[in-house]
Amino acid sequence: MQLVINTYGSYLHVKQKSFEIKTEEDKKRVSAKKVSSILITTGAAISTDAVKLALENNIEIQFLDEFGCSLGKVWHPKLGSTTYIRRKQLELAESEEGTELVKEFMLDKIDNMINHLHDLAIKRSKSKEKYINKKIKEICELRNKLEKVTGYIEDVRNTIMGYEGNISRKYFASLSFLLPDRYKFNGRSFRPAEDEFNCLLNYGYGVLYGKVEKALIIAGLDPYVGILHTDGYNKKSFVFDFIEPYRHHIDRVVMKLFSRKKIRKLHFDKIQGGLTLNDEGKKLLLTELNDYFDKKIRYKGREIKINNTIQYDCHSLANRIIEEG
What is the pTM of this model? Predict the structure, then answer.
């Protein structure tokens, strides 16, 4: 489970070899064996004993800002990459094999988008179903064009990103079309989000970035050596590459919150240029995300928690890089 500290003034410490979270109103004790990561989203105190217990049990401690983006992490120093895998990553970034790899990420992402839209269309009215099916057809046509792209990544980067951007616009237009009128949005907006849907989506993606970065490092892959996304100072380019097939998980959770009418205007605060998710909104989203990622699914021939699919794929990629070398 992911332990989320989202109450201002909380205190995380150790009692009887377990984590204990104290707030003004409550106490909660959790065995370290049940915790996979600790997420701290607001003003809280954490004891050195709690940090030590987390490190001893290979539990990541992650601090998030108000937009859900990682401010920093504490994790075991033995996690890391082999030099060989990092060298192979660098070679991929300058080869046609690298192009094929990022195309795999993108095609998986698009397939997951299509499946999500199919799922959303099933119980909708005939007119809405017709609209969604039209968008799916358009997305499939662009997917087929993307699949045919070949060449070195430097030569085809803009082409790949152009197809992906066009597909994403059609996908998010479809999601907006299915929302209640008061929550419809006009495309993606980032920090700050201009609407409630993007506000939730951005925060959820921030949490997902943390999951992907951790999984890459555990598998020995370098989060900074990107292929499609170019390198830059302190830029986790490979996280941006690798995250693409998993974004639909966040999309599904956010859409479900709206379809079940759990979203309220009171979950958001107005700030200059847009909206931010307040503590109540974060609590709602993080609870839903934790429940969702803790579910087991049939994935590539095995029963596995959704949360563990990312780590499974990271290890598979690392092994593939080693074997191909």
Answer: 0.82
Gap between the Cα atoms of 19 and 107, Å rounded = 41
CA 236 to centroid of chain Cα atoms: 14
Query: Which positions ≥6 away from 252 have C-beta within 8 Å?
Result: 116, 292
- Torsion of the alpha carbons at 137, 138, 143 and 149, rounded to the nearest 10: 140
What are the angstrom distances between the C-alpha of 249 and each of 175, 210, 227, 236, 245? 14, 14, 23, 21, 9
The alpha carbon of residue 311 and the mean position of all alpha carbons in its chain are separated, in whole angstroms, by 13
Residue 104, marked binder: no
Domain 2-64 in CATH 3.90.550.10: no
Q: Which residues pair with 74 in a beta bridge?
A: 61
Residue 118 is labelled as binding a ligand: no
Q: What is the mean pLDDT of the chain?
A: 91
Please report, for the chain, the start and end positions of each structural domain, with discontinuous segments joined by +. 2-64, 83-324
**Among the CATH numbers 1.10.10.10, 1.20.120.920, 3.40.50.970, 3.20.110.10, which is that of 83-324?**
1.20.120.920
324 carries a ligand binding annotation: no
Contacts of 152 (CB under 8 A, 6+ apart): 94, 95, 96, 99
pLDDT digits (tens, 9 = 90+) for 33-61: 888 888 888 788 999 999 999 988 888 88
